[in-house]
Structures are given as C-alpha cells and as structure tokens.
Write a structure and sequence with these properties.
By secondary structure, this protein is α/β, with parallel strands linked by helices. The protein contains eight helices and eight strands, in the order ββαβαβαβααβββααα. The strands form two sheets. Strands 3-4-5-6-7-8 form a six-stranded mixed sheet, sandwiched between helices. Strands 1-2 form a two-stranded antiparallel ribbon. It starts with 5 loop residues before the first strand and ends in a 5-residue tail after the last helix.
Length: 261
C-alpha cells in the first residue's frame, strides 16, 4: 500500500514541478493502511516538507513504531532539490529516532551531519573516510545506517579514483553502532541510475517483511539493484531507470493465456 506525499512532473532529465499533498491527508492515508490491511514494514522516500515529516513520525508513533526504512530523499538523480533545507532538521529530530534502517547517499549524509552539527564536512577520500561518515550518521538516531557509496567509485585499493579508468568498485557501508559490514560491487559505467536509492530502500523493506535480518535484507537488496543497473535498457535522454523486472520470468502470451498447441 502507498501513501502519496507529492506528485512530480519529471522525465529522465530533471524534475520540473512538485505538487504537495496536504500533510494531514498523508497521515490519513497511512492510518487507513495500518488499520485495515496492516503493515509489516514502512519505507519512506520523498517526504517533501517539514509538516509531512512530522505527520509521518506521528503515524509511526501511533502505530507502535513498526520496522522502517527511511530513504532521506533530498536531491534527485538529476540534481533537483526535493526537500527544503529547513525540513532536514525536522527529519533528524522527529523521524530518525524512529528509523530502523537509514539509507543516505554521500551528499545526503553530509547534509544530515551539517544540519545536525552545524559543521562542514570534507569530501571523503578513502574507504576509511566513508566508514567514519557512516558511524557519525548512525549517531543521529537510526538503529542502522546504510551509507551508499555510489557517488564515490573507488579504486581496487579502496581510495578515491583520480581517473575514470581507475574506477573499479562501489562500497556500501552498513553500521548499527557496533558492527561494520562492507557490501562491495563492481563499478558500472551507465546512465541508468534513475531511482536507484528508492529501489534499494524498497528492496530492503521487502526483505525485512520476509523476516530477513537487516544484514541479509541489505545484501539481497544491493544484489537486486546491481543486477537491475547491469541489465537496464537506456530510456530517455538523461538518467534512465534500472530494470526492476530482471528477477521475473517472462512467458510468451500464448502460454499465459493457455493457448499453446
């Protein structure tokens, strides 16, 4: 079930308009889903405004703090601002303490830390820098943080690539306050990255709903998204979507309709 927070006018090249759903209406959608069908895991994406963040947090509190995966959507793949800066502080104060898994990319992690600490953070230059950033973000309130490394391809020696030819691996860092887990994947040169963060957070939520523990759900989700990127067909003139259907068998229509000879 979905509670819609905003409608966007967008294509693969950018976001050109946002229509905000009233915050009270967002909460009403959530309450009805909880009360009628029931919810195993909540995944949030573009929350769009400070008032909606507050209402989402209220709903999670009212319904017993269910498992949640929070993708702190702030900037689109194409670079469009999707969350006002003032709302970031509200997210840190009201939603992160209720979050099971937080899934920021590197720019989002830097912004969360800057708003929370009022300090600027330098660009990470190595895997150790990314690990340190993940640890700092986890202190903001979520039980787990998955710092996504897609914005910073590393060399095989796990340092920042100085040349595109040296880009070899992407490393995502999972941290719960005690344990560090590194999820490493091959760097793929592609334009098919539209919605990768949303897809990853949704896949993690699905894994948790299937009763996987967090590390297992995250590992499966990362593999799902990597293959979705690898098998994507380029669509549009900007950043196209990944292939979400690579795990689904495709049968001929005659077979589906039972018309085989």
């Amino acid at each position: 079930m979905t509670a819609t927070t905003a409608l966007t006018a967008q294509d693969t090249k950018g976001v050109y308009g946002i229509h905000y759903v009233p915050s009270e209406f967002v909460k009403q959608q959530m309450d009805l889903c909880f009360d009628d069908i029931g919810v195993d895991v909540v995944k949030t994406g573009m929350l769009a405004s400070a008032s909606t963040i507050r209402k989402v947090a209220e709903a999670l509190e009212a319904h017993g703090r269910p498992l949640s995966v929070v993708d702190p959507v702030m900037v689109s793949t194409s670079g469009s601002q999707l969350l006002p800066l003032a709302a970031v502080k509200v997210l840190c104060e009201h939603l992160l303490p209720l979050t099971t898994v937080l899934t920021p990319n590197i720019p989002e992690a830097q912004l969360l830390l800057k708003v929370s600490t009022e300090k600027d953070f330098s660009e990470p230059q190595s895997l150790d820098d990314l690990i340190d950033m993940a640890k700092q973000v986890q202190t903001l309130g979520s039980k787990w943080v998955l710092l996504k490394g897609g914005h910073l391809p590393l060399t095989k020696a796990h340092v920042v690539s100085k040349d595109t030819d040296e880009m070899a691996v992407i490393v995502d860092i999972l941290y719960d306050g005690t344990r560090i887990s590194l999820i490493e994947s091959e760097y793929i040169e592609t334009q098919s990255t539209h919605g990768t963060g949303c897809s990853l957070a949704s896949a993690i939520a699905c894994g948790l709903a299937l009763s996987h523990d967090v590390p297992t759900a995250v590992k499966i989700a990362c593999q799902y998204v990597e293959k979705g990127i690898r098998t994507a067909v380029l669509i549009g003139k900007g950043n196209g979507p990944i292939n979400h259907f690579h795990t689904m068998p495709v049968l001929p229509l005659r077979s589906v309709l039972g018309l085989e000879d």
